[in-house]
Write a structure and sequence with these properties.
The structure is a homodimer. By secondary structure, the first copy, chain A, is an alpha+beta fold. The first copy, chain A, is 34% helix and 21% strand. Chain A contains 16 helices and 18 strands. In chain A, the strands form 4 sheets. Chain A has a 7-stranded antiparallel beta sheet, sandwiched between helices. A 5-stranded antiparallel beta sheet of chain A has the order 5-6-10-8-9. A 4-stranded mixed beta sheet of chain A has the order 1-2-4-3. The mean pLDDT of chain A is 94. Chains A and B meet through β9, α7, β11, α8 and α16 of A and β9, α7, β11, α8 and α16 of B.
């Protein structure tokens, strides 16, 4: 709870147009893409680091939680107020401050929408690769806080690989710059990458310096249809083993394909069929050569169909269907447990076969799709939440899937983060002494635990 | 000082063949490439994580410093025992544990020599890009501890960009795994990248998982000669602005060129001449096209000479001369202060012109060479240490150069680290509240300050 006097001080800092306290206004800020509701006490829309610093100092005095929030498109509950308190929206921090073509970098505020940034830099022949599926609404600040990935990570890596430096407000109110504006820099501990992926628990990001690369000349999309999981996984392994690194290698299993069948701009014959969508980018010569090699490999591994997208429109329609997959799955069951586990690429076939067995054993549809190229599979356990037995089976299946992932030397989250969704399971992956160290690091940043409490791991509650 | 009883316990842990305590044996372990002598009390050669854990637990009980050490080729004093104590050599932890061609990764122990790892993976058509000049002796463990760079960073990034996960022994003795074996992973705080570049002050690295990439098909070296600094810096800026990212763009100023003139396999006319050494790698078509574009740009910016290395031998000789530059500078003066500052690429010309002015004002030769492609310049202030006035001028010039670097929005170290060499100056770059946070992080890892004390920043001395 935020006290009356603290609320008055917030009003002084922000002005009344930039603070919401009426419960009727708080709804949109009470959930993210995990669809669980936690109402904050208030929502602040600061316009600069100085206001944020004042808010955090006040939160320390008054001991109320502060929850940084971008677009609220996160998949693990990073932006929700599980203990109430003040949601701190980055809506007004939405400027692209600098696009530096000589040094190949941008400086942006956290509220800039990912797709908007990409368009702006692409106009100048530059490229910011990370492409989470929500990029049309997600903000760069949220991407940095969660270390967002996306299909292109196969070739280009994830958000972490592009963050050069940050300006952040520490939970105790100090404004500090981390990292560098140069291509290299090793002075002091790497606070930048410690804050990237810390899910809004260590600092509030107010400025971001991102590295850019030259925009690839062109791209080409291939669609490959298989009749069984193992053949498709073997094909992915073969491509990488042949030292071809496509921009993306996306995978949809049969259940997923059924859900977007009517959105795909081509005839898909009825019956079992899995799709790989592969994109290559770069120089024309290289693309053509790699495409020919991929085609040859596919034909060796028992492909049903191999075709190139005829034109840009068709490629874009295919990608749109892929991006719409997550919501489309609701045709199978109204509720889902969505996990973004990762396994080593070479274990993909084992993983997919085991998942199919788990689905059969628990009598639940478990459509899988995602980034086969980096082993990052979105596993969706579909169920009716109001059928108690089904919900129970779903949670048992989840446990088994997480155990399977770790047994295959994988990780529980490739890009969504832990937040509240995976917090109960973090101990399966991270050893107690490592978790203990993370708690101490949290304490070093945030002695009173006011910043985004209740996320990632349990800490001492706010006193 | 290590007590008698602690020494006996160390002997029990290690066996007497693997502990040096005789002063006559300690010489080689008393310095690194900074050429300052600090004798440790003993040197340990553990063979596994378990022994290291026991040593660190003992060090906590007995409060003696432990200094991890690879090859001792570091440039900032990271591996020297400034407060005495136990040097912990990684000599026996020298195995390549796994080269995984399907998942494009290696697992290695920290004592593996960088060049050896590179050869082994290149035999399999894979590539580990970071290439510090000392790669023929430096170890991967040291590279990770310092976040080593090298000429290829322009295109491929630095050590940090290749570390996927670590096994480390915490200063308090716990053995933990950090990071992942998969292409993506965001579970918990990023301890991996916090430890990378922490200069042996946060944990002892015992195993490293490194990402690999496919080996480029071929490479091509160009040598470009300019008559003045500004033209060469402008040329570098133009290349990047044209969206060409060479593998390396190395720079040598006239003073540097003079020092390796007799090692370069070609006729260099007398008189002012600066060299750029550019390497392209990748597909033949792309290399040829980029080479032609670079040639055209160079001719526009007033080049004296543009030529391709005739063959691999000539290219290798050029690169050898480049790698030998650092020792060759002693022809100018016996002592040097060597700084690896970085400025934004676009400020390179301003920086070089200013350095030349500083050299004239202090009447000292300041040869500069290094990685122009990423703005990381090795500035060498040459002087006679025994001429008091000259030594004083050298240190004044250093202050001015560091100030200049930061004024141009650069950083004090691109790849050498802070250690003891840059510790007096860290406050020029890192704000007090950020330094304070780093001290708290250090304390979270190492409550008694036993691990590599006296490096990077001042902390409370060991009680």
């Amino acid at each position: 709870m935020i006290s009356q006097s603290a609320t008055s001080k917030l009003l002084q800092i922000l002005g009344k147009e930039h603070l919401l306290t009426d419960t009727r206004d708080l709804g949109p800020f009470s959930h993210d893409a995990t669809n669980q509701d936690f109402f904050p006490d208030a929502v602040a829309f600061p316009e600069n680091a100085d206001q944020i610093s004042k808010i955090l100092r006040l939160a320390n005095e008054e001991r109320f939680p502060v929850i940084p929030r971008g677009a609220g498109s996160g998949m693990s509950g990073g932006a929700v107020a599980v203990q109430g308190g003040l949601v701190l929206s980055t809506d007004r921090l939405n400027r692209i401050l600098l696009i530096d073509e000589e040094n190949l970098l941008v400086k942006v505020e956290p509220g800039v929408v990912t797709a908007h940034l990409q368009e702006e830099v692409e106009k100048r022949g530059l490229f910011y690769p990370p492409d989470p599926a929500s990029l049309n609404i997600s903000t760069i600040g949220g991407n940095v806080a969660e270390c967002a990935g996306g299909p292109r990570a196969v070739k280009y890596g994830v958000t972490r690989d592009y963050v050069m430096g940050l300006t952040v407000v520490l939970p105790t109110g100090e404004i500090i710059a981390t990292g560098v504006e140069t291509a290299k820099g090793v002075v002091g501990y790497d606070l930048t990458r410690l804050i990237v992926g810390s899910e809004g628990t260590l600092a509030v990001i107010v400025e971001i310096i991102l590295r850019l690369i030259p925009k690839p000349e062109m791209k080409r999309t291939m669609l490959i249809r298989f009749s069984d999981i193992e053949a498709s996984a073997r094909c992915v392994s073969q491509i990488i083993k042949e030292k071809i690194i496509p921009t993306t290698i996306e995978f949809m299993d049969s259940l997923s394909v059924e859900c977007v069948r009517d959105q795909v701009p081509l005839e898909l014959p009825q019956g079992e069929s899995l799709l790989l969508l592969i994109e290559l980018d770069g120089d024309q010569d290289r693309i053509n050569r790699d495409a020919r090699r991929i085609e040859a490999l596919c034909r060796q591994t028992g492909v049903l169909e191999f075709r190139f997208a005829k034109n840009e429109w068709e490629a874009e329609e295919l990608w749109k269907a892929r991006r719409n997959l997550s919501p489309s799955l609701q045709r199978l069951r109204p509720h889902k447990i969505n996990q973004d586990v990762v396994v080593p690429r070479s274990r993909l076939a084992d993983f997919m076969v085991a998942i199919s067995g788990i689905g059969q054993r628990y009598a639940l549809p478990i459509p899988c799709f995602g980034h086969a190229g980096d082993g990052n599979i979105h596993v969706n356990i579909m169920f009716h939440n109001d059928r108690i037995d089904e919900a129970k089976r779903a949670h048992q299946a989840l446990q088994e899937i997480l155990r399977l992932t770790l047994d295959l030397r994988g990780t529980l989250s490739g890009e969504h983060g832990v937040g509240i969704s995976k917090k109960p399971y973090i101990g399966m992956e991270i050893a107690p002494s490592a978790l203990d160290l993370m708690r101490k690091i949290k304490k070093a940043f945030d002695p009173n635990g006011i910043l985004n409490p209740g996320k990632i791991f349990d800490e001492s509650p706010i006193r």
